[in-house]
Amino acid sequence: MVSVRSVYTSPSSLTYHDLPWIIHHREDRCTLCGRCTSVCPVGAISLAYQRQRMPKLDILQKKRGNEYRHFTGIRQHTVVEKRCIGCGMCAAVCPNEAIGPQANTNENRSSFLLNQKGDSYKRGGRRNATGKTVLDRISFGRISMLTDPALDAGRHEFNTNTILGRVLSPEEFLRRRAAGEWIPPTREIFPFVIGSMSFGALSPNMWLGLLQGVAYCNEVLGIPVVMATGEGGCPPWVLKSPFLKYIILQIASGYFGWDEIIRAIPEMQCDPAAIEIKYGQGAKPGDGGLLMWFKVSKLIARLRGVPEGVDLPSPPVHQTLYSIEESVMKMIQTMSMAFGFRVPVYPKISGSTSAKAVLNNLVRNPYAGGLLIDGIDGGTGAAYNVSMEATGHPIASNLRECYLDLVRQGRENEIPLFAAGGVGKNGNVTQNGMALIMLGASGVHIGKYIMQSAAGCLGNEMGRCNVCNVGICPKGITSQNEKLFRRLDPDDVAQRVVDTFMSIRTEMKKIMAPLGRSQSLPIGMSDALGVDDQAIADRLQIDYIC
Amino acid sequence: MCRLALKSADTPFSPYEVLTAMEAMQEGYDGSGLGLLLRGVEFEEFKLKPHHVVLSGIAHTEAAFHRLTDWMGGQGFQVKYAHEFDRKPGLIEAKDRFNYLVRVYRMPEAWAHLTTDEIDDRLLQARLAIRRDGDAHGGDITVFSLYRDAVMIKEVGWPLEVGNALGLQDGRIKARVVMAQGRQNTNYGINLYACHPFFIQGIATMTNGENTAFVPIKEWLLGKNIPGYLGYHSDSETFTHILHYITKKLKLPLELYKHVITPLKTEELDVHPNGDFLKGLRTACRRLIIDGPNAVIATLPDETSMLVMDQKKMRPATVGGRPGAWAIASEMCGVDALVPDRDPSLDFQPMREHTVIIPPERKELIVWSQFDQFTLPQAA
């Protein structure tokens, strides 16, 4: 026996009860096939020989003794690097339902020890905040059922599309039209946009599946869905394909991928849907993109014009940026010019109390095609935990404030506001999106929801999985490792994208019909909204209901 | 859901005729309000001249009445005729009705050199000033219109009873065009300003139905800061202001009203001869797209009358008549009652794409389709 005093405990010593997820293993069901241990993305479990002592007392012989039973069990590792992430792949592959992680309801001691080797805790995912969001609490209460004949969501025709791009005032439109002057480009798109997720962050199969699904929505179903790339460009074959018109190309502070894009311009068959200039991201305001070396594969390195296997942290701000005025002048105008003033160009910023300042600057710029505001509940492939958890601004009040500011100026039709950050966080994607639209958004961007809905991303608000940053995504969504991403069939992803957007369209009609709206997207129809909290109602200037 | 009746005839007729005809549609209103607008007005005791304007409204107290008449005099308006209704006050529920104003003024001499548009702006400013004054004094003045050849009456009560209370059957006041609305109060409080028709610078509309896109449209119109775009006690007031905005501010042809409030779909515009322009206009005027079931009936200063439906045609308005006398009503029985001596087989129920016009000559109906080509003298 080892004496208790001599047991070594380091400051970082943990037991499995200190971890956020505890593996529950049922020996009686286990066939020792070993699938769970081989699939575990972090190596949190291993098969181990264990010995069980059975005390034995022979009363007649007056002898005491022991018997030992040896068996092969599952051992959960307690070192921080190998802590269970709760992804549940072990349960997914187990033939006998013998194993699976369970959330630890005890205090999570491991969170004090995640800052190993001089670095703070980095991860992928989202802000871990469970429970209903403000958007989840909003309901649509202005029902036109008896005051007027209600619409039939199943039979009537609905216009559910929105406009992306700078819109002129009617007076200015007519003047320019008569004078034959330039009229800013606009796009008629579906108001739920697949938010920017970079080609480096997503696996090739995920990206292909998304694009296939988006093309099907556009070309077969007539749902004009567009998707945004994150930083890092786009495969050359896409740039030169007719599918480019469904893609919003993002330029971010690292300018990764733009060599390829600029070189492809002469060979483009069509214009992209829009250009998004990323100044900020809701999940990690003040941080640039972060593609960690695990994910910089040969293809990604080529697209981005960098060596393989190096970390690619984008600067927090655009290096050319001196001030917002200059940014608007330089970047929006340059990007507009690069595409012959035929493509809307708009900035994306993180939700912030200073969003109105940005907006007011854009209002005065005739080239700005909109503003995307990304709230704190947005997701990311990689960031410091502190950025994700604590930095940023929730989207609802930020968007509403900006919209009401435009209303005061009579400019709400001219600069379309797009909102992002937590839309569909708890699964209520259409409800969340329509609430934002009625608060004043022209549309919403959805990223995490698409990963969860179209590809089965395992992440949740309890810190589950969240390893997108290190390229070990057990579903193959955010990995550049072929062994992992071949788990994801692009055709299945495409099918799920289509399922998702068909369902969103149906739910939009189910929301719009009882409100008596079918002719146009109910942007700013705040009289339809109610919330069961007086303070939220006051802040958003909507009805308090109870 | 309200009931609407409009009659346009070469021979002036009493507005009481329209109120009687409205009884045919009586299950559609609840006595929460009546609104009347008269154009081509003829008084038995006075002949209107082109330089005359008519002030319509209610002075609720004697003090308000004197304050108003003094103010008008101070602005240079000379009163030429004050129509006194033969009132039976017992028939009106409200007691604070000192005077129903229908007063004819000669426009101030200082305005002699102004253009018609400038005069319209001055008249609007004067009406708004009166309205503000009434609001500042606890609502003791309600003003409906101040314009050439337009009389408006609004009152809470059963339409025919209101007519009786004001003695409209005596024929002392007649008109070539009469719009009437019997109100069914649904969403908003009973308020004289909430009664249709709504009026701004000679343009008047009335609607039955509900504009479910009211709030975004209202917010956009308010944001334009155009004088007179205020009130919005009723969601239907937006229809009047949109018509005013399209025709007076943007100076677009009347055909485009329908294109703005219920634009065609993208697939339809792709094959429309003016599709490119219309797509741009739809985008620029996107906040003026109406929604919900609506039949909008409008009249213009030149005695043109117009009827358009919502995009899904969820309202059953009908137009019918004969050369010289035409009627638009929210129900077919209303048309029957207004112009009985017509061929009912020629009645027309506009579909979602139609704009029906009764021109001032009243010889025949004009029906425009949104699918037709149109010419844009300035903007094309």
Entry keywords:
heterodimer, A: 546 residues, alpha/beta, Alpha-Beta Plaits, TIM Barrel, 2 domains, 3-stranded mixed beta sheet, 17 helices, B: 380 residues, alpha+beta, Glutamine Phosphoribosylpyrophosphate, subunit 1, domain 1, globular
Fold topology:
The complex is a heterodimer of chains A (546) and B (380).
Chain A: E1 21-25, H1 35-39, E2 45-58, E3 63-76, H2 89-93, E4 99-103, E5 122-126, H3 134-137, E6 139-140, E7 162-164, H4 170-179, E8 187-189, E9 192-197, H5 204-221, E10 227-229, H6 236-239, E11 247-251, H7 258-264, E12 274-278, E13 290-291, H8 298-304, E14 312-313, H9 324-338, E15 345-350, H10 355-363, E16 371-374, E17 379-384, H11 385-390, H12 395-409, E18 417-420, H13 429-439, E19 443-446, H14 448-455, H15 482-485, H16 490-515, E20 529-531, H17 534-540, E21 543-544
Parallel strand pairs in A: 9-10, 9-19, 10-11, 11-12, 12-15, 15-16, 16-18, 18-19, 20-21
Antiparallel strand pairs in A: 1-4, 2-3, 5-17, 6-20, 7-8, 13-14
Chain B: E1 3-13, H1 15-22, E2 34-39, E3 42-43, E4 52-59, H2 62-74, E5 78-82, E6 99-106, H3 116-136, E7 141-147, E8 150-155, H4 159-165, E9 173-182, E10 198-200, E11 203-209, H5 214-223, H6 237-249, H7 255-261, H8 266-270, H9 275-284, E12 294-299, E13 305-309, E14 318-322, E15 325-329, H10 332-338, E16 354-358, E17 366-369
Antiparallel strand pairs in B: 1-9, 1-15, 2-8, 2-9, 3-9, 4-6, 4-7, 5-6, 10-11, 11-12, 12-13, 13-16, 14-15, 16-17
Helix pairs in contact in B: 1-4, 1-10, 6-7
> Quick one: CATH superfamily of the largest domain in chain A?
Aldolase class I
Q: What global shape of chain B is seen?
A: globular
What's the CATH architecture of the largest domain in chain B?
4-Layer Sandwich
Can you write the helix and strand succession of chain B as a string? EHEEEHEEHEEHEEEHHHHHEEEEHEE
**What proportion of the residues of chain B form beta strands (DSSP E)?**
25-35%
Q: Within the CATH hierarchy, at the fold level, what is the topology of the largest domain in chain A? A: TIM Barrel
- The helix content of chain B, as a percent range, equals 25-40%
Mean pLDDT across residues of chain B: 92
CATH class identity of the largest domain in chain A: Alpha Beta
CATH-defined superfamily of the largest domain in chain B: Aminohydrolase, N-terminal nucleophile (Ntn) domain
Query: In CATH's first tier, which class of the largest domain in chain B applies?
Result: Alpha Beta
Query: Which secondary-structure class do the elements of chain B indicate?
Result: alpha+beta
Per the principal axes of the C-alpha atoms, what is the gross shape of chain A?
globular
> What is the average per-residue confidence, as pLDDT of chain A, rounded to a whole number?
92
Total beta strands of chain B: 17
Largest sheet of chain B: 7 strands, antiparallel
Sheet with the most strands of chain A?
A: 8 strands, parallel, barrel
Unreliable stretches covering 5 or more consecutive residues of chain A: none
